[in-house]
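Lab notes, practical 5.
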Amino acid sequence: MTEPAVNSVASEAPVPTQATRLRGSLQLRHVDAGSCNGCELEVASVFGPVYDAERFGVRLVASPRHADALLVTGPVTKNMAVPLAKTLEATPAPKLVIALGDCALNCGAFRGGYGVEGAVSDVVPVDAEVPGCPPDPTTILRALRGLVQR
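Output from the prediction step:
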């Protein structure tokens, strides 16, 4: 049975920063650009049996060539700046970039670190932001559903 709190997510969807909404479904390629894995645990929850993002048409895919959007977590490390840009380049248009978590938005606790290139928006254009350290599954699901137009 579905939890009532998850069903109420649709009415409170945040507005994407620059993105146009996609129709019907959202195929995501997750890119860990240097995170502490806190956001990854919450993303795993979003696609697990309790929140079940796939019932809303949101799916994780294994290749950027099959993706509509990149879900980027963590500050972008110097070693991940070029791979992130190449991953975005491999994603077919129209494409979105979603910065997930405070580290992706402003480097969080890693700001000023010697191995940090910068926030996701310093490396690639960001279309939607999901704040939090880490953002809870309901917030993530609300943001992802906000990108999908029925």
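Observations recorded by the TA: The chain has six helices and nine strands. The beta strands are 22-23, 26-32, 58-60, 69-73, 76-77, 96-100, 116-118, 128-130, 148-149.
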